Backbone:
């Protein structure tokens, strides 16, 4: 008996410490690949915006066999890129994503890629923060037999904290937008060691080092808009551009001024390089508003000009990230309004003094040091001779607010459904019914001016290029090819709009009368090629479709509903035609699928 006990192999008892060590090792490996996916997803910054950041890594054992990241909304999903790169090595492999797939509502291209490729396990950094997408891909993958593990849920080990933080940070704008219903806002300023942003005279060029200014250019390139006040325009005459040359993302430049006491000559009024919006009080200096409009500057009036209302407006525009580069009075107002989420403070090793020299943040009404706002998750970085201090005024939301699901709503009252609305709004691709957007990732195939079938990466690519088809200017043909080759719908739109604005002689003479027909042809092709889009469109029967852009008064509804909503109208017309002639509709779908199978991109 004693001998038997002596010879019982100790490893058959599976000591808890050994098991935990093994689990922690696997968890650490999972976390490292998810963090790599998050780092990959950040590569799309400074190119096109706004869009969520997706990255994907596919690995077998300890080897990475494929990876990819979403370049912009309407481009090939990161998951599809990774699957294509991995090829046959996908079978039995694990896919790692920083965020649950779901760039476009109603589009399961990424999920289907994993299933068809033979991926057996998917590790997800965070669930999708948008309620209508949250959990959908995870549930679909699990239904298809794939093992899905989510950091912090299925993998609770402390070894994943660093990876989880990377996933939250890289999509902080989307998380804040979802939870707070305003864009993610960063306050940036440069100050001397004694806390001044300018001399008593107002002179402020330059407080920070050349390297710090380059860092600011990068921050601008990552933002959808940059905000300044009227005093900054008067004193500094800024350009507010990323200075990265051609090909990068150009943020909207926004000036907040109640009285429009602004100079007639300013760099911001030159919109050839980047667009500008001036936000002002309703009725302020009508003559100057007309002057700005003549320069191509958009003027937006508010009943009461304040940071919260401006952020609500930018939220409606679909913006994710805003950079504030304003003076102390406006920054204090924005902080007090609760719309500032993060601070970047560049501290230069200089002392300028001055009793009345301005500071980066004006009066907040605090009288005791115990009232001071403290930054969260503070970091310090030396940039040139300066020190960059960064931190959050509000913690990054790790999930969307708890909103009752459809099942929960029906359980409370079976007669209610949150999706039974007579009006359906759509705008950005990640919104509900986002596939209706011209920026969605759905290639179409249509004949060019010579009758040859050509593949266009999106409806937006096709529409923008058609502006120059048949133009009397022989150079217009070059613009068509450049637009068709644009990497994303956003870039195609920028190219088409900029060329139309700067070179009106390139635009075809009949464009204004033909643009609705051009759009309709592209939409009909799109909704005939893709059965799931066709089903989604038909499911809206009885509802009014409204393109919710507050910006576009022709294709969208406009800010106050004054827009013509022609995109919504064309979709409703198309829906009516599909529903009205079922046999013809089926034939068009079959023909569309045949054309789709011939698309080679």
Residues:
């Amino acid at each position: 008996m004693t001998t038997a006990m002596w010879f019982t192999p100790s490893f058959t008892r599976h000591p808890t410490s050994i098991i935990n060590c093994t689990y922690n090792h696997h968890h650490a490996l999972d976390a490292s690949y998810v963090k790599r996916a998050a780092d990959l997803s950040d590569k799309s910054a400074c190119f096109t915006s706004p869009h969520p950041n997706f990255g994907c890594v596919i690995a077998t054992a300890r080897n990475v066999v494929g990876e990819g990241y979403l370049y912009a909304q309407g481009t090939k999903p990161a998951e599809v890129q990774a699957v294509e790169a991995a090829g046959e090595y996908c079978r039995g492999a694990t896919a790692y994503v920083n965020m649950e797939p779901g760039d476009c509502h109603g589009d399961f291209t990424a999920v289907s890629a994993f299933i068809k490729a033979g991926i057996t396990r998917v590790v997800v950094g965070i669930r999708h923060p948008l309620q209508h997408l949250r959990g959908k891909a995870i549930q679909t993958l699990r239904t298809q037999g794939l093992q899905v593990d989510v950091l912090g849920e299925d993998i609770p080990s402390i070894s994943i904290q660093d990876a989880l933080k990377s996933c939250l940070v890289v999509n902080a704008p989307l998380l804040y937008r979802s939870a707070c219903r305003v864009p993610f806002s960063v306050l940036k300023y440069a100050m001397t060691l004694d806390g001044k942003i300018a001399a008593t005279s107002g002179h402020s060029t330059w407080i920070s080092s050349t390297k710090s200014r380059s860092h600011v250019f990068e921050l601008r390139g990552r933002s959808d808009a940059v905000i300044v006040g009227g005093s900054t325009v008067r004193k500094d005459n800024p350009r507010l551009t990323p200075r990265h040359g051609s090909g990068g993302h150009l943020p909207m430049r926004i000036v907040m001024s109640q009285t429009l006491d602004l100079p007639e000559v300013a760099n911001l009024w030159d919109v050839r390089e980047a667009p500008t919006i001036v936000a002002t009080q309703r009725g302020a200096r009508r003559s100057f508003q007309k002057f700005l409009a003549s320069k191509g500057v958009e003027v937006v009036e508010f009943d009461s000009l304040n940071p919260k209302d401006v952020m609500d407006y930018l939220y409606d525009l679909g913006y994710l990230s805003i950079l504030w580069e304003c003076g102390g009075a406006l920054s204090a107002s924005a902080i007090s309004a609760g719309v500032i989420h993060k601070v970047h403070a560049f501290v230069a090793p200089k002392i300028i003094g001055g009793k009345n020299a301005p500071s980066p943040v004006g009066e907040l009404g605090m009288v005791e040091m115990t009232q001071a706002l403290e930054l969260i998750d503070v970091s310090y970085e030396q940039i040139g001779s300066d020190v960059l201090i960064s931190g959050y005024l509000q913690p990054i939301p790790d999930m969307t607010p708890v909103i009752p699901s459809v099942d929960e709503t029906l359980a409370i009252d079976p007669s209610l459904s949150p999706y039974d609305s007579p009006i359906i709004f759509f705008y950005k691709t990640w919104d509900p019914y986002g596939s209706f957007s011209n920026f969605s990732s759905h290639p179409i195939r249509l004949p060019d001016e010579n009758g040859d079938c050509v593949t266009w990466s999106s409806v937006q690519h096709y529409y923008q290029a058609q502006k120059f088809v048949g133009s009397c200017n022989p150079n217009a043909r070059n613009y068509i090819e450049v637009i068709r080759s644009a990497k994303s719908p956003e870039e195609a739109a920028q190219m088409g709009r900029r060329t139309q604005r700067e070179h009106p002689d390139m635009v075809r003479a009949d464009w204004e009368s033909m643009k609705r027909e051009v759009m309709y042809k592209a939409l009909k092709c799109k909704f005939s090629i893709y059965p799931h889009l066709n089903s989604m469109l038909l499911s809206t029967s009885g509802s009014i479709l409204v393109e919710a852009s507050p910006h576009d008064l022709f294709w969208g509804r406009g800010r106050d509903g004054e827009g013509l909503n022609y995109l919504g109208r064309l979709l409703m017309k198309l829906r009516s035609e599909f529903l009205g002639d079922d046999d013809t509709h089926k034939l068009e779908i079959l023909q569309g699928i045949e054309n789709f199978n011939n698309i080679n991109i």
Q: What stands out?
A: The two ends are 72 Å apart (CA to CA).
